[in-house]
Design brief:
heterotrimer, A alpha/beta (439), B mainly alpha (305), C mainly alpha (319), A: 439 residues, D-Maltodextrin-Binding Protein, domain 2, 2 domains, six-stranded mixed β-sheet, 19 helices, B: 305 residues, mainly alpha
């Protein structure tokens, strides 16, 4: 099944490349003019990348850069960024006129608000020249496209969440096969919990009370959604029957199987799992490494961890995973926009993404198989990446995140300070106001 | 400095004081006992206040699996120096240390010089606009810095000072200088004016009065405000992160961010605590260096009215 | 400083007597550098903040990126919006209580430790000062992380130690489930971080007290408390007024400790004005709303401090 899907997409990709080969003989198709430039003699471009690349895949950056430099004659100056306070830095930089980078990396939930503000160069005319653009991961591609269909940010890489569990603890409790449905998961967790009842700090499944990516996955898995647009107006949808059912399942995990995390977020779950009192978490693929790395976790767990995609309401139907990831864009005010776009082209082409696929989910379905071959974890996360959900794609979404609307709702559900019905009602009111910009 | 200098009041150790010990001698034994009690209290206070620092230090040498244990480890099973080694061998740390030093030293020196003049004016002179100046300095302190990020950024942008250490120094003056004015004013006001006047009569110039009388006497205040300015500028994060765009120009506070968790890696707490320890050390070292200089120029006798 | 009773030794009264000199141009020359700095970095940004607060908050960042663009002026509407929201008043009330508690605790412990520093042997002073300095030198971001560990519900040292006490069951107690308890922990971080400045400055102030004044008091048979109340405290008052003023300002706008203790997601019960302004205005790129709240913060502070400002003038006039 999987193979066929990939085969088809790969075929589609080749066709797309072939078609674009014909049409790009002129100044590029679509609206507007091509932005790509190769005239870089004596010029310097500045690229802002998050330090994920610096710690994770510096070689991918340097090979793309050297190919770019050879082709254009320009020099690339990569400046590593940190996520903390990043939007304030972007805002203040874009508001001014100096120090504007030629390429920026953004989180895919942040992109929409900058696209709407006209912060990025329209790359629509060059879309076909970006390799694999026809097979880009849908979630990422949508986040980089404006509501009127213009390409303003190019998909970079993605991540998806799976269940990371302690094989040894589960086996000792008599659970040897990965659960296929949520009911099976609950039954297995009951067994794991019962087998470890003597440990008061034991979590069969650690689910922090502010972990909204995991909670919303269950909402989408139950057929609900965060918000929906009806005749141009956004309405919060968390109090729908389906969404509440998903949240009820989440609450069961967070209160019955999880100890001590009701007021925490997910940022410390790996360090905690490394301490040995947690039998499962919902996490990104890289978190397996975080639990077992000497600097951030406990290396002795390396052989004891395994993963499986979060099961869904029925067998063969996974709970959709949040498709987190990053986009790359060229700021409107960039001095060397054409060269910036050209660098993105090199950094997201098949050569670069094939190398990147060793470390993260690449931007195209055509390279998923490369990613999945790396490890058992990658196989699960690759599988999970095929069924994903994404936040309401509107510029105001960033304010829902900064306003902690979902975290506050979830914490009150996890601590049982309010009922699911009451908490979702409050959240829906806030969602409506914020998404429509009337707050 | 002042904190460490010989105190006539501290009885038991008053060997170097200039004040005659005569009237106190009969009480010395009781005083010594009292001092012993106070010393014990001081040790207890130091232990309580210092516990989080102790925790920072031992965390920096703990292996990752010894951090966050259910039964807290008050002494690590295994010491690891990899946190410190990683930080000390990182060329970016050295760059950032240098940037932090340049920014902080300049901020402190400028704010002390500028603030000292301002403090002299309001402590020693009456002039029209004095109250306005006092209130202006106070209000500046009230502006929440985070609200100024964007306006500051635009201001430096139009002055072509964005992404420069100098631009950040100017912004930091905004919150170190008013404090310096305020605090030094108090310390200057506490110096008897008769001292300046006597010196003027003795033929000193105004500059000499300032340099030879007032400056040494406000030494403790200078150090207190200097260290204060140092700590604020050294630890500021939002402005540095927003206005310094190049990696080669960022400060240690921005450097500390990389130890936090990100979408593709976990938090390195050992590294964070090691880096934080190395970031805090310069302040402590600085203070120790200053104290020997300052207390030399500060004699108990000179303070007598 | 005017509290110079006749019982005080002549040196102290003499010092306080007399009025400020008129210095012709000298004072103006002296304040010029400070004025330049203020004009340079404060006036324009402050004007910009006020202008921003008078412009419409649009949902888009477009105006920001096009130099203000065509954002309409809305007069005081942003202020009306802020002041008519219930949240604002809840947050303001919480901020006032938080500030009062924090400032009071900071002052009490700061003075006590300053006096203690003056009482102890040199070696003890060196140790205590070194600890104070280390406390001072640790960035708020890091100290907050350390306290978050100490008060962690599962791995925290505090719960572990308290649980060892007979009759106390603290295992797994979540300090942050109830915002009152959580803010109490945050108060601990704030006060802990603020004590060094007060203790060290006040101790520096104590060392300026003329020794003969203290000797005289002691000869007169004044006890430790009487000496403290009638000599040390009046002498320190100008410094105390300033340190109190500044503590009020800082604790009123406290940000890092709350923000990092809640890992960047402060719940509604943890919102003080500094946090409220940041999350409503800065981190959500709603800079007009943020500017409005910043102006309101300054005004609220000025109101709170009216008493202190008058006190400051008195001090200024008396000398």
């Amino acid at each position: 099944m999987k193979r066929t899907v990939l085969g088809v997409t790969a075929l589609a990709a080749t066709m797309a490349v072939a078609v674009s080969g014909c049409s790009s003989s002129g100044s590029g198709g679509g609206s507007g003019n091509s932005q790509l430039s190769t005239d870089g003699k004596g010029k310097n471009i500045t690229v802002w990348l998050q330090s994920d690349a610096k710690t994770g895949w510096p070689a991918v950056v340097s090979q793309a850069t050297s190919r770019f430099e050879k082709a254009t004659g320009a020099k690339v100056n990569v400046q590593w960024q940190q996520w903390s306070n990043y939007t304030t830095k972007l805002d203040s930089t874009f508001a001014g006129s100096s120090g504007i980078p030629d390429v920026v990396e953004l989180g895919n939930t942040q992109t929409a608000s900058y696209i709407e503000a006209g912060a990025f160069t329209d790359l629509s005319a060059d879309k076909s020249k970006f390799e694999n653009s026809s097979s880009w991961l849908t979630g990422l591609a949508e986040s980089g496209t404006s509501p009127d269909g213009k390409l303003q940010a190019v998909p970079y890489y993605a991540g998806s969440r799976v269940v990371i569990y302690r094989k040894d603890i589960w086996n000792a409790a008599g659970v040897t096969a990965a659960p296929k449905t949520l009911d099976e998961l609950n039954a297995d967790l009951d067994k794991v919990k019962a087998a470890n009842s003597s440990d008061k700090n034991f979590s069969a499944f650690y689910m922090p009370g502010k972990y909204w990516y995991a909670a919303m996955s269950l909402v989408y898995g139950a057929g609900g959604k965060i918000a929906e647009q009806k005749s141009g107006k956004w309405l919060g949808a968390l109090s729908s029957k389906e969404a509440q059912a998903g949240l009820a399942e989440w609450q069961k995990i967070a209160t019955d199987y999880s100890v001590g995390g009701a007021t925490s977020d997910e940022s410390t779950q790996d360090a905690q799992m490394a301490q040995g009192h947690i039998a499962a978490i919902a996490g990104n693929g890289w978190e397996v490494g975080a639990v077992t790395a000497p600097k951030t976790g406990n290396p002795s767990l390396a052989s004891k961890l395994s993963t499986f995609p979060f099961p869904g309401t029925a067998a063969g139907k996974y709970t959709p995973s949040f498709l987190g990831g990053s986009d790359l864009a060229v700021p409107t005010k960039a001095k060397n926009a054409g060269l910036g776009a050209q660098w993105i082209k090199y950094y997201t082409d098949t050569t670069s993404q094939t190398q990147l696929a060793k470390f993260a989910i690449p931007n195209t379905t055509s390279l998923l198989s490369v990613y999945e071959k790396q490890s058992q974890t990658n196989q699960s996360t690759g599988e999970a990446a095929k069924n994903t959900w994404f936040v309401p794609n509107t510029p105001n979404w960033a304010n829902v995140e900064s306003g902690n609307v979902l975290q506050n709702m979830l914490e009150s559900i996890a601590t049982k300070k309010s009922t699911i019905a009451a908490a979702t009602k409050t959240a829906d009111d806030q969602l409506g106001k914020i998404l429509n910009g009337t707050n | 400095m002042t904190a460490l200098k010989e105190q006539p009041t501290s009885g038991a150790t008053s060997g170097t004081t200039s004040s005659p010990a005569g009237p106190r001698r009969p009480r010395n034994r009781r005083k010594a006992a009292a001092t012993g009690t106070w010393n014990a209290v001081a040790l207890f206070v130091a232990a309580v206040l210092g516990f989080p620092i102790f925790w920072m230090l031992i965390t920096s040498v703990k292996t990752s699996s010894d951090i966050n244990r259910l039964v807290p480890l008050f002494w690590p099973h295994h010491f690891t120096w990899s946190g410190f080694a990683g930080v000390l061998t990182d060329p970016i740390f050295r760059d950032d240390l240098l940037n932090s030093l340049v920014i902080t030293l300049s901020t402190v020196l400028i704010s002390i010089v500028v603030g000292f003049f301002g403090a002299m004016a309001i402590a020693r002179f009456r002039f029209a606009g004095r109250k306005v100046f006092i209130v202006a300095v106070l209000i500046v302190q009230m502006i929440p810095l985070t609200a100024l990020t964007i306006p500051m950024s635009l201001l430096l942008d139009s002055a072509h000072l964005k992404n420069t250490l100098f631009g950040v120094i100017i912004v930091y003056l905004m919150f170190t200088m008013p404090f310096t004015v305020w605090t030094l004013r108090t310390f200057i006001a506490n110096i008897p004016r008769e001292l300046d006047e006597a010196a003027l009569i003795d033929g000193c110039t105004r500059w000499q009065v300032f340099y030879k009388i007032i400056l040494p006497l406000v030494g403790p205040g200078l150090v207190a405000t200097g260290v204060y300015g140092w700590v604020l500028a050294w630890n500021e994060f939002v402005i540095a992160n927003t206005l310094l765009l190049d990696n080669t120009k960022q400060t240690l506070m921005v450097y500390l961010l990389q130890f936090q968790s990100s979408p593709t890696h976990g938090a390195d707490y050992g590294g964070l605590m090691a880096a934080a320890t190395l970031t805090a050390l310069p302040v402590v070292v600085l203070f120790v260096i200053f104290q020997s200089r300052i207390s030399a120029g500060l004699t108990a006798g000179a303070v007598k009215g | 400083m005017t509290a110079t009773g006749s019982s005080l030794p002549p040196t102290l009264t003499r010092r306080r007597g007399g009025s400020l000199r008129r210095g012709g141009n000298v004072p103006y020359l002296l304040i010029t550098p400070a004025l330049i700095v203020l004009a340079l970095v404060v006036v324009w940004p402050l004007v910009k903040v006020i202008l921003l607060s008078l412009q419409e908050q649009q949902s888009s960042k477009r105006a920001l990126f096009s130099n203000g663009g065509t954002t309409p002026w809305v007069g005081l509407r942003n202020f009306v919006d802020a002041l008519t929201s219930r949240t604002f008043w809840t947050v303001l009330e919480r901020t006032l209580i938080f500030t009062a508690v924090n400032v009071a605790l900071t002052l009490v412990f700061g003075i006590a430790i300053a006096v203690l520093l003056n009482r102890v042997s040199k070696w003890a002073r060196v140790i205590l000062t070194a600890v104070l300095l280390f406390v001072w030198a640790v960035p708020a971001t890091v100290s907050t992380q350390i306290y978050a560990w100490l008060f962690n519900n599962q791995f925290g040292v505090v719960n572990y130690v308290l649980d060892k006490l007979p009759g106390v069951h603290m295992q797994g107690h979540d300090w942050f489930a109830d915002p009152t308890q959580g803010l109490a922990v945050i108060t601990l971080v704030v006060v802990w971080g603020a004590i060094p400045l007060l203790a060290i400055s006040l101790h520096a102030g104590i060392t300026q007290i003329p020794q003969d004044v203290l000797e005289a008091a002691r000869c007169d048979g004044a006890g430790a408390w009487a000496t403290f109340r009638h000599i040390v405290l009046p002498f320190l008052r100008p410094l105390l007024v300033i340190l109190t003023t500044l503590s009020v300002i800082w604790d009123f706008g406290v940000f890092h400790q709350i923000w990092f203790m809640r890992n960047g997601h402060p719940e509604p019960g943890y919102q003080t004005l500094g946090i409220f302004m940041y999350s409503q205005g800065v981190s959500s790129s709603r800079y007009n709303t943020g500017a409005t709240l910043a102006v309101l913060m300054i005004l609220a502070l000025l109101l709170v401090m009216v008493v202190y400002v008058r006190q400051l003038f008195k001090i200024g006039d008396a000398e």
